[in-house]
Each structure stands twice: as structure tokens, then as C-alpha cells.
## 1
Amino acid sequence: MNRRTLLTGLASLPVLPLFSGFTLAADSPLSAQPPTRLAHPPSYWRDKVSAEAWKVLFEEATERPGSSPLDQFYEPGNYLCAACYLPLFRSEDKYDSGTGWPSFTQPIEGALGTKLDFRLLWPRTEYHCARCGGHQGHVFNDGPAPLGKRWCNNGVALRFVPADQPLPPLRG
Ligand SMILES: [Zn+2]
């Protein structure tokens, strides 16, 4: 936990209720239809993702800053949930926040749900994949204009698909 994260954590106030505003379709990942919410227990995903990814996604662990190859990575493409493959972010919205975690100015509409996290004494707004419920990261109010948001994501919880490759089918 670095100083920047401590300070920005204080500025992060409630934004949205959990899993509000679904707009993605399960059968058409980038379209504007609600995703089908999966009801699998965390154990369902154990053999489908790495041990490190599982801890982040289903035990809400946080990867060490600077540890993800996706942090300093700016190729064109889409960032999918590492568990269920729902597209969560586009490369156009990725930027270098200097925090050591992959950061985005906005998610794909409806791909994420948020809730307050009081784990660190002050509230932070954490967000989850709207389809499988996997924990991805936290959103802060110190992002670049005009949106002003920093969606701070664990790289290990993402799967990158280059723009010139087809998206894999959703799984789960
Ligand atoms: Zn997911």
C-alpha cells in the first residue's frame, strides 16, 4: 500500500449499489444487453484460473504493484475477466496512473458492479465482474479529465485479447 493509494482511498466515496446498471449480453459480449449473472460458488473457478488469479477474484486479494505485465502494456485490444471472459475494459481507456496497477478511465458499460469495501478502515469502492462476481479492483476519484475516475485493476484478474484476434466465448 503506497502513499498515493492511501490518499486516494480517502477520496473514494460510494458511487453505485452492487451490480447496478447491467447492459452487456452473455451471448454478445460487447453489445448493450444485460449479462446473465452466474451463480457458481468460488470453488467452481479453482481449476479454471491460476492460483494467483483465484485469490484476487474470489478472495479479494490484491496483487503486488508493478507485478503485472499488463501494467506497462498498451497494445490495442480488449481486457476480459480472467474467470468468465466477459470483456471489462478497452485498450483505448487504459492509461499509466503511475500506481503499478493496470488503470483505466472507464469500464465497458455494464461490465462491472461496485460496492463499498471497509476492509482498510476507510471506505473504498471495489468492483466486480457483473457476470461471475469475480473481484477485479477498486475505483478512485483521481483519474484524468474528463471522467475523473481511476479504475485500478489487478492485472492477474484480466485476460488480454489483441484487437486482431476474436474474443473467446464466454465461459461458465
Ligand atoms: Zn467474470
## 2
Amino acid sequence: MPHTISDTVARGMCIGCGTCSVATDGAIPLVLTRRGLYSAALDGVTEQDLERASRVCPFSDDAPDEDELGAPTPEGNALPLDPRLGHHGRVLAGRHRSDDYLLGSSSGGLTSWLLDQLLRRELVDAVIHVGRADADDALFQYTITTTSSGVTAQRKSQYYPTTLRDVLDVARRDGRRYALVGVPCFIKAARQLCREDDRLRESILFFVGLVCGHMKSRFFAESLAWQVGVPPEHLAAVDFRVKNPARASSDYDFAATARGDGVVQRRTRALVGGNWGHGAFQPEACNFCDDVFAETADVVFGDAWLPQYAADWRGTNIVVTRNPVVDEILSAGAASGDIELEPLTVDEAARSQAGGLRHRRDGLAVRLADDLAAGLSVPVKRVRPDASAVDANRLALVRQRRRMSLMSLDWFASARAQHDLAVYVRPMSAAIARYRRLEVGGLLTGLLTKLRPRRR
Ligand SMILES: Cc1cc2nc3c(=O)[nH]c(=O)nc-3n(C[C@H](O)[C@H](O)[C@H](O)COP(=O)(O)OP(=O)(O)OC[C@H]3O[C@@H](n4cnc5c(N)ncnc54)[C@H](O)[C@@H]3O)c2cc1C
């Protein structure tokens, strides 16, 4: 049986992108779940609407996969294809030239620089991206920006659940030309929707991807803020990526602002759940994604987590292009000295996302096999289910990480209800300790295997 949008929602693996709602003219509402995530609500939806919705759901078998969608342009699809990066034109590392500018960006600032260029060159009228929310009930939301100053004001990565529903509803009506920024599953969902919706297809001219390790629930922001002294009910704003010129780019701070109060800031890696490898507050959807490099976008930006760049506090982007217009803009920026670029190999680009690729390849093979063995519905992925894809130690690690993602959401929901942060921090710390023991065990096993004398 194909895995449909109904299975996706029933299994709690809806990412809340909202394309199903747009495809059905609002027949499918989105709700905020008790785990701090958006999800489609399918009660009472007609069969016909379910079919329309399933064709645009990024986790449904009724929708095309990343290989079938490919890059947005014919030129992009003619480029070489790597199973880790997707189609790739130029593979680069780079950053904005100004240190002052870089303080306001998450990484090398090239995402915002490109968006600004698209506006300045009048290739688009507006940008659809995530910025600070204008309502009290969320910290961030998808927003439409029409000016360079607006693009500059809405920089940085927002590790926070959002939905495309409202902005795409506007975009399909107003006749403007857009660039859309998103994590891989959102770009894929929007591309699918464009196949179904002529007005949107004519409106969204550039798809700008963000490399993605995984998305986070609202609890990520709230749990880090609570740990620095701002409980959820007082939380007004967060900054997930505060750079510190005295430290490596990967060693950034988290900052929280309480209502009517000042900013408190702490090293992210010192906070429980701050290490991305631990998968805290990861939605279940991300356990079923196999796209790290936003393979269906015109260009993707990430962090160049490579030894030659990681020590530089300013941050360095990794860039993979799939559109000649983007290539030309980047080349012009480098020629004018606005930005710095240098070529990387495909292997280096993949290495910069080694953890994400392990999670989306070997880890995914295990999770698919586990769920099928348990009789659960899973989407067809470009990775085959295989519990033997990894050794026994890694198998335990993959399963422990999945447990931590799931349990962190429940522990934090209880902590919130009981107004007691320890209800989350205590069990999560114990789970992380177990994860670390498994990691050390894996390292020792690897070392012993290398040292063991070879038989002649
Ligand atoms: C959930 C998530 C997970 C990520 N995981 C990884 C990872 O594992 N490895 C890695 O190398 N990089 C990852 N990134 C990308 C990384 O954090 C930076 O966003 C990227 O390197 C761009 O940096 P920049 O300095 O060029 O962007 P900036 O100049 O700071 O601009 C960022 C732009 O992206 C927009 N934006 C921010 N958050 C979102 C969002 N959630 N959805 C849509 N638009 C958004 C902003 O509005 C702004 O336009 C992730 C990003 C997100 C949102």
C-alpha cells in the first residue's frame, strides 16, 4: 500500500509545510500540536481533497521524489548528479567580505546577499523567507520581504517550525515574482505545489535552499531559553546563532530576551539539547528525509563545517549551484569584491555534512527497516530499508538518537505543564550520557579493528 498524506499525519510525521492546505484552498487546516510542531488536520476532509493534498505532501508516495522533481531549470537538470549533493554546478565555500555584516548572519551571509542581489537586479519583486513573527503566539514565521533593508533585517537561521500556508496563499494571488527560501522538504513541497498550481509556478522564480540536518520543534527555542533563565511564558525573542570573535564559528552562543527585560546569552554547546548530534526536539518527519542539500532548489547554502574554515569565527558558507543565473550573480559579486568564493570538491562538500548524511543514509535505512518490521507504514525513500546497513554499535546509536528526539518532545511538554525545567533536563541528560557511552564504544571498536593484526 502506498504511504499517503493520511499515513504521514497519522504517524506524526507531518512537517507542517502547509502545501496541502494551499492545494485544497484551505480545506485542510493546520494545527499546533502538543509537541510544538505544526501538523495538517485531516478530520472530515473529503477523499478528493485528500488526493489533491497527497500529491503535494513531501512525505507521501503520491508525490514525486527529489530525483523526479530534479532541479528547477533544464540547465540545472543537465548538470552532473551526485547521490549526496544532487545536481551540482559550482561547488563553493565563501562568505561576505564585511566582518560587520557577517556578525548579523548565521554563516557566511551569502544567502541574504544573494536574495538582496535578486531584488536589486529586479529579477524578483519579493522574497519569501522566515523572519521574526509579528504576533505574540510565535517567535518566527514565514514572511514576505520586498526591500534590501528588510532582507538584511531578517537574517540568521531560525531553527523553529513555520508553515508556508499563508505566504503561498498570498503569492498565488498577487502576481508578484518571488524567490523562496526553505529547508529541503519545504522546497520540495513548494516545487510539487508549483507542478499543480499554474499561478504559483509563474510566481516563484527562484528556490533558495538551506542545507538541513533536521528541523526543530518550538521546544528547542524554549528549552534553551529556559536554561539561560527565561521561562517560556516570559520569552520574547531568541537568537540561535550569536557569533563570538574569540571562538570558532561552530562554537556559537544562544541568546534569549525576556519580555520587558534584557538579553541573556550562553554558549549553545553548554546547554542540554544544544548539540545537534543529540537530535533534541527533532520532528519525526526528519527521520524520513533523504535530502540534505535541498536537491530540488536552484542553489543551496549551508555551513562549511570543514577543518580549514571551522576555526574562523566569521562563518563560511558551503554553496552548491544549479542555475546559471545564480552562477553569474556569484561571479559578479566575487569580481567586485563584495564576496569571497573558492572552489570545493564534491567530496569536500559532502564531508562538511558528514553527520547529516549519515543520519539520512545509514540511519534512514535502519529506521525504515525498524518501522517495517513493526508493521508501520513508511514512505518509499531513495534509501533501501536495511537494519544491517551499520554495525551493532552504530545501530544502537541510531536507535538511541531516535528515542531522544521523541522523548525530548514529551519530556519538555511535561516540563512546561508542570512549570519545572528539571522534568526535561534530568531524563534528557541521562539519555545523552547513554548516547555518549555508545559513541565512545563505537570509537573504541573502530580503533581496535584497525589495530588488530591482519591474518596472512
Ligand atoms: C532547520 C535548519 C537546519 C539546518 N541544518 C544545517 C546543517 O545541518 N548543516 C548546515 O551546514 N547548515 C544547516 N542549516 C543552514 C544554516 O544554519 C544557515 O542557514 C545557512 O548556512 C545560511 O547561512 P547564511 O549566513 O548564508 O544566512 P543568513 O545571511 O543569515 O540568512 C539566512 C536566510 O535564511 C532565511 N531563513 C532562516 N531560517 C529559515 C527557515 N527555517 N526557513 C526558511 N528560511 C529561513 C532567513 O530569513 C534569511 O533570509 C540549517 C538551517 C535550518 C533553518
